[in-house]
Amino acid sequence: MNGTPMVRPLQIGPLHLPNNLALAPMAGTSDLAFRRICHRLGAGLTVTELVSARGMAYDPAMRRNWRYLAIDPDAGAMGIQLFGADPDDFVAAIGQILDHPILSRCGLIDINMGCPVRKVVSEGAGCALMQTPLLAARIAQRSVSAAGSKPVTVKCRSGWDSASISAVPFARMLAECGVAAITVHARTRAQMYSGRADWSVLAAVRDAVALPVFGNGDITGWQDAWRMLDETGVDGVMIGRAAQGNPWLFRQIHRREDTGPGLEERRTVILEHLAQLIGLLGEATAVREMRRHLGHYLRGTPGAARLRAAAMTATSRTQLENVLGEWQIRCQESCENS
Predict the structure, then answer these.
(1) Would the pLDDT of 1 be above 70?
(2) Which residue numbers are catalytic?
(3) Which value, to the nearest 10 degrees, does the dihedral of the CA atoms of residues 168, 172, 173, 177 take?
(4) What average pLDDT does the chain have?
(5) Of the options 1.10.10.10, 3.40.50.970, 3.40.140.10, 3.20.20.70, the CATH number for the domain spanning 10-255
(6) 213: enclosing H helix or E strand
(7) Distance CA 108, CA 77 (A)
């Protein structure tokens, strides 16, 4: 690695980030509670779960979408990610965001042009936009215009499949449209989340445009993050699945340390996550949401499979806390017997 600091501040238009580590927008994971925790543990930018631009038009009071859109301006830079296939929908959604007393304080607005999921792609949204670059350009241009001084960024993929690796011309087009930064997941839509990410695409995009580029894909530890920054020259890294149940990864990247959290810290953060969700959503909904998170938090620990099964049937805070209590006992016994 060269002598340049790998973890460093980053500027995206008028938005100053304290560091270049970002939490990816992930459906079912990137709730406000988790974003707050990741910020506290070292993420310089966090992004909401993807929200339908068209859906916002039918929910002006944000009763249904608020849980996905919610941000905390006091918990660092938070971006709001929108998906869709109609430029008018993006203009309307951005207008709603900018008119809202809290949402208008978001750090940036991100456009999803990389989601590979069939439900999204079948609507012409997500990664399907990489196959319709003229439409993607109209969405980007009109979003940038509607957002005014608020930075607009785009998350895309290497391309649709191995025969159409189009990230470089796509990134150039987005830069001409005025977007402030680009994130590239170094896999194709055909790969979904399998196979190896091709980091050479990240280096090519970095060389092709004069705006910040985040790399995404195959970062599972601090070494991967530092290596991506060093080998590809990207300005920042965006971490997705590796952060699920492991928000401490951001701290490990900062410190270049292999050691994860101790048992007590892990338990404290899980309980903090649950308590925050209850405050945001109410107990019944929070417990349902937390069951998924708990599966990630417990991954790789003694008795995880059975405890995950028990968590999936929990319907109250007390039941989830009981699962955590049993998990703590199992972990302590495992340590004593090792």
Answers:
(1) no
(2) 115
(3) 150
(4) 94
(5) 3.20.20.70
(6) strand 213-216
(7) 8
